[in-house]
Amino acid sequence: MEKEKFINNEKVKGIQKTLLPYWQSLIPIFQYQLITKILIALWLLVLKKFFLLLLQSKGRVSVTSGDFAFIFTSWQGILIILTGLLSLFVYIAFDLNAKLILSKRLLMGEPISIRRSIRESFASIRSFLNLRGIGIVLYITLIAPLLGFGMCISLTKDFYIPTFITSVIQTTPLYRLGYSAIMLVFLIVGVANMFILHGVVLEGMPVKEASRESERLVGKYWKDYLKQNILYAISLFAVMVCVVLFVLVIPLAIVYILPMSEGARRVFTILFVLTGSLLSSFAGLFVTPLYVMKVTQLYYTYRDESKMYYPVYPPKKHPVILSGIVLILMIVTAATFFMNRYFDDIFPLESTVGIIAHRGGGNEGPENTVAGLETAFEAGAYGSEIDIQRTKDGFYVLNHDNTFERVAGDSRSPAEMTLDEVRTLSVNKEPVPTFEEMLSACKGRMILFAELKGSTADKQMADDAVRIIKEYGMEEECVMISLKYDLIDYIERTYPEMQTGFLTFVSFGDTAALNCDYLALEEESATSDTIKSIHDQNKKVLVWTANEENSQHHFLCTDADGMITDNVIQAVNIRQNLSKRTDLDRIIDYLLGM
């Protein structure tokens, strides 16, 4: 290609020289994103159907954190694992490798063919079919999202360690130190291998050679790489701020300054918030591809040790873009008038989510005690979640951990003690109660969510708990919950008149079809789509354990039926303040909850 087609000359200077390659790449990037998103959605749909067929052949509807052992002991489970691992390679080819190839073509001025980019990305898969390659794939899919650094795929960009695990890590100094050390090692490895995909996918290098080349480039140019990333982040942030200011903040400020009726103000508020949200989602399509393009530019610049030449494409008219904008405006306008007409139904002012105290009374009173439950009730809790375990002589007492060490200073477990021995213990000067005492304290006042806990959580416990609940006539006021799905399934099949709930933090498949009345989801997995799918099968949703203010506010604005929390008073105050929200607050809370 002749030099005149590049902008490394005096004709184009300054910020235009910096931004032009990215600006002129927006259309091909959008086309790539649209095509690959559709292909990925189709691939995931086929994959999900295949997995569900395998589960059904095993007589199951899903795989969950409380029912996963079979996946390692059956041919269906092994096939799911192998197919899932293979699908990661396919996903990376669609979602990442093709981006790299497209970026190279855009930067080098080569003919742009999305079909060819995808085809070449699939051909690169064979380079990763070795131990080092598998390690790269697992790093991209699992470790990079945890670090929040480096290239990752959209499928797992929100991958997380469940809150109940991270809370233990953060509150235990040794665990926190170990976790920090491991993450630091992963971070160093990730930085050193930042260009490994470029070597493998773009240059056809073996993984080991690409790793060495990446380490060489990062070691030599790390200062410039850091500077370029910071400048890129600042530029991206500045662009997003400008978009938000001119599309959302300034128009809304004008709406609330100008004199107009409340009805008109509400219509314009909906219109501008919807437009801003839609544009933000649209802009999100470009963030990752543009970053991949930036890193690719740095890779070739460092390898050639010279400035990168950028091609100048002749300006083109894109009538499709204008048509798309008109269509979007029509949809936004129609949605605005629909939402205005049914405003209170779509954006409810009051929350219907019940607040449930964790471990009796949460942080408002001694853990798993009658006093704690009383405090939670007085604070306004709708229900209380407790943990029951069986003593050596067959009684049921409350305790969360395997032993009483943390709460009462006794290293024995409930199963090693008689009821009389447990009676000698106290939790912050409050006695350890029996299951019966908690039922009595709750009767007619709160819903009791009784978790069958620990090593004694078995069918005998289930049978005994059902008998005790019926003795107190509290079948409608007590929900039996557990992390063990087989136990919940047993209760549902044996005692269908009882209310049950399954606690899960990881699940795959038709989770909503599980045999229970409540599904308790760890907060990161309690999405609006998941909640809706569960409600569609006439089941209720609990969220656990939401303790932070932002998290509580978020879930109190969702369609969840209950929220388990340690901070009951804080949650009650947040719920009361929801009635003071403006129309803008209500719309934003709804959109954030989607």
Describe the structure.
An 8-stranded parallel β-barrel has the order 2-3-7-8-9-11-12-13, surrounded by 7 helices. The chain starts with 13 loop residues before the first helix and ends with a helix. It has 22 helices and 13 strands. Helices cover 59% and strands 9% of the residues. With 594 residues, it is an alpha/beta fold.
Could you tell me the radius of gyration in angstroms?
A: 28 Å
* Sheet having the most strands: 8 strands, parallel, barrel
Give unreliable regions as ranges: 1-16
What would you call the structural class? alpha/beta
Oligomer: single chain
| N- and C-termini, Cα separation | 48 Å
Total DSSP helices: 22
What is the helix content? 55-70%
Shape: globular
Q: How are the strands of the biggest sheet laid out side by side?
A: 2-3-7-8-9-11-12-13
Number of strands: 13
On the 0-100 scale, what is the average pLDDT?
89
Strand content: 5-15%
Tag the structure with descriptive keywords.
eight-stranded parallel barrel; 594 residues; 22 helices; two-stranded antiparallel ribbon; 9% strand; alpha/beta
Give the topology.
Blueprint: H1 14-23, H2 26-57, E1 62-64, H3 75-108, H4 114-123, H5 131-147, H6 163-171, H7 173-192, H8 196-203, H9 207-257, H10 262-304, H11 319-341, H12 343-346, E2 354-357, H13 370-379, E3 383-390, E4 396-398, H14 405-408, H15 419-423, E5 426-427, E6 430-431, H16 435-442, E7 447-452, H17 459-471, E8 478-482, H18 485-494, E9 499-504, E10 507-509, E11 518-522, H19 528-536, E12 540-544, H20 549-556, E13 562-565, H21 568-577, H22 583-593
Parallel strand pairs: 2-3, 2-13, 3-7, 7-8, 8-9, 9-11, 11-12, 12-13
Antiparallel strand pairs: 1-10, 3-4, 5-6
Helix pairs in contact: 2-3, 2-10, 3-4, 3-8, 3-10, 5-7, 6-7, 8-9, 9-10, 10-11, 10-22, 20-21
